[in-house]
Amino acid sequence: MEPSLARVDYLQVGVTAQKTMRLLPASGKKATQKVVVGDQDGVVTCFGIKKGEAVPVFKTLPGQKIARLELGGALNTPQEKIFVATGSEVRGFTKRGKQFLSFETNLTESIKAMHISGADLFLCASYIYNHYCDCKDQHYFLSGDKINDVLCLPVDKVKCITPVLACQDRVLRVLQGSDLLYEVEVPGPPTVLALSNGNGGDSGEEIVYGTSDGKLGLTQITGSTPIHKWEVGNEKKRGGILCLDSFDILGDGVKELLVGRDDGMIEIYAFESADEPVLRHDYALSESIASIQGGCVGKDGYDEILAATYSGWLTGLTTEPVHREGGSGEELKLSQEMQNKISSLRNELEHLQMKVHQEREKYQQSSQSSTAVSSVPAFSVNEKFTLNKDDASYSLILEVQTAIDNVLVQSDVPIDLLDVDKNSAVVSFSSCDSEPNSNFLLATYRCQANTTRLELKVRSIEGQYGTLQAYVTPRIQPKTCQVHQYQIKPLSLHQRTHSIDHDRPMNTLTLKGQFSFAEIHSWVVFCLPEVPEKTPAGESITFYFQNTFLGTQLESTYRKGEGYFKSDNISTISILKDVLSKEATKRKINLNISYDVNEESVRHTLKLIHPKLEYQQLLAKKVHLIDALRELQVHEGNVDFLLPKYRSILEEADQLLEEYKRQPAHLERLYGMITDLFIDKFKFKGTNVKTKVPLLLEILDGCDQDGLIAFFDAA
């Protein structure tokens, strides 16, 4: 049965971070629960709902922004003590708002993730994990990549403390004390962890994870090895997962999995069979879901899903019917209740309008006085710049706490702007100078009223690197703008992967010289995305990458004084050679560069590119025929006389045009890659073949794989 959920907006606090809203335990069965939320103004707000209105229980004074909020208490008792992480400090409050704990951890970085289990406190900064028991330091671990979340398996079931870290390099790190027990590979960078069913399942070892590319999975963390139970992909291309909870919202006696995403989607997954969850219901809000909880908030006996959004709205999806069935007396009572609510809202609105008018006059007077000081209003921008594996494009998501007026996008490297279905903004392009070191892209997105979230898609060209800048202007007075910069790296379409195929024909680039481990690591960070900025522990490191556009791969192994880079794509090796030489020259470091080129790798890369090339050429031909075929259709009245292949083009015309529009310059990119491959192959032999490029382009138009390979061999 489909759940009937009605939306209710309760209250707005300041901007909220991920996992900063919880429901306090109810005093009785089906009784309403109090809501506690922490915002980036440092305020902890606790409130309940009476007759549809938010009634405050307590509110703390502003301070440092709150990064996490968790509930705690003695094991096997109601978890009703409130703990918040601000900066490097953890504070504890009772459910009445009395502060009973102020624990300064002396961490050098701000706390990013927190978990509480009885007297045990688990804290993570960017790379550092600390375990405290009764505020005394117990264990410490330095992670190889950024930590996004932390969790501990339930001690009452597992009988030992087993912390799990969700790390940016697509692994869950399972710890024992201060040591790494083992690593669990997951399909994307994990952003959030939750205990399965809220208690770790029957064994207490089951953990649900959500990734930044929108995938869900469940893994059993046993004492020796992980057991992957199920994984749900992101076929609908929805946003990354920010929060999870388990709650029986369908009322069937089995807890459903509640999922909150960064594109505003709330999803309910039901466990109809033991194998994997099935999406039963979804609901779209206009901004990212920072926290999600299931419980009873608005009215006794009616369950609901409560979500905290980025801009601080606390929104409920309640099972309480909006239109009640009953006699006229009940309807009259309801209408009276509604009238009172509307009246109080009108009064509140008038009061706010008067206050705004007074403040505006006050600002006008102060701005015209001789001692006027210009004040720039501050606003928060939630940003995300990530590479999508599916279509080898970058998603730039900008979310502002208030409505966006416009966003200017500027790039000093050639990039393509791709269409985004969810984007309702009007885009206009400005012409750019053809001089070197000038802009390659200037585009303005004008947003419709009340747009707080904008998603853009761009595709870069490997080998061309620089900066993409977004100038964000919200609808606030006086007009103000924030600039956000994103690096387009030389090998920007490469993505970290757990392993590669070692049987492929590989080209090798070897670097030797008087450089430190930190220096060569900084060069790799400059060249490739998804590499942690912090120099890895140990004497050497190996990273594996895959090109999301072509499927070619790269292995990089380096230590102090030497580096080895292997790839089945000679163009990747060529780009690395050029960029690493330039970076070493900047630092006046003398490099000894040698390379081993495998002729077979060029044929292998051409065979990888060819199916994509053939598909895009066929798509382009079909799109070019559509107008002529439509004209024939208009003149002749019917198209029965056409060959089946032409009739199918007409039937699929809208999908073909949509696909072609979504992937502009795709064919040109493939032509460019094959041309670069041709030039790079002979560059390593010391031959300049740029004069033969026109001949190569003619062969490409013919789309003959054997002819293309023969041309590469004969040139």
From TrEMBL:
- UniProt domain BBS7 helical hairpin: residue ranges: 599-712
Q: One short Pfam family name for this protein?
A: BBS7_pf
Biological process terms from the Gene Ontology for this record are: intracellular protein localization; non-motile cilium assembly
Kindly indicate whether the keyword Coiled coil belongs to this entry: yes
Q: Which residues form a coiled coil?
A: 335-362
Q: Which InterPro entries match?
A: Bardet-Biedl_syndrome_7_prot, BBS7_GAE_dom, BBS7_hairpin, BBS7_pf_dom, Beta-prop_BBS7, WD40_repeat_dom_sf
| Stretches assigned to the BBS7 GAE domain | 377-486
Write down what this protein is called.
BBS7 protein
A GO CC term? Answer: BBSome
Report the residue ranges that make up the BBS7 beta-propeller domain in this protein: 21-319
PANTHER family xref list: BARDET-BIEDL SYNDROME 7 PROTEIN
Q: Which organism is it from?
A: Grallaria varia (variegated antpitta)
Pinpoint the BBS7 platform domain residues.
494-596
| Span of the signal peptide | none
